[in-house]
Amino acid sequence: MNNTIYQAKIHWTSYIIPSIKFVIGFIAAIIGINYWSIPFVLLSLIGLRDYLENYFTDITLMNTKTLTIKQGIISTYINDITLNRLESIEVYQSLLGKIFGYGYLKITNLGVSTIYKISDPLKFRKEILDNK
Hints:
This protein is α+β, with helices and mostly antiparallel strands. It has a single domain (4-130), classed as PH-domain like (Roll). It has helices at residues 16-31, 38-55, 95-100, 121-130; strands at 4-8, 58-62, 66-71, 77-82, 86-92, 102-109, 112-119. Strands 1-2-3-4 form a four-stranded antiparallel sheet. The protein has a three-stranded antiparallel sheet with strand order 5-6-7. β2 (58-62) and β3 (66-71) form a beta hairpin. The two termini are 21 Å apart. The chain crosses the membrane at residues 22-46.
């Protein structure tokens, strides 16, 4: 049984910086000699971790009037927020965000804020407000 009303997608631009970190770190680690390559290996691993964190993040609006945020690579963190407990939903879109179709979605629940860079944040905000 599928209870999904809408699933937000992490925008492709969220993968640019982690990819750059990984590539620079990987190339510099290969070129580097001995212990000088250790910081570059770490940079590469951090880039890989950030990339995978973005890839394994799901933000789903369910028809049970809950917003489910699931994150994790090896261990999983799941946060279910009932829509009637949401304090605010803020959207920020820069000029580039409007051109490329992404924005930052800030979800505030009981004083805790979470920010995500997603595709089409205005549509997701509208879906949340329509189902609240």
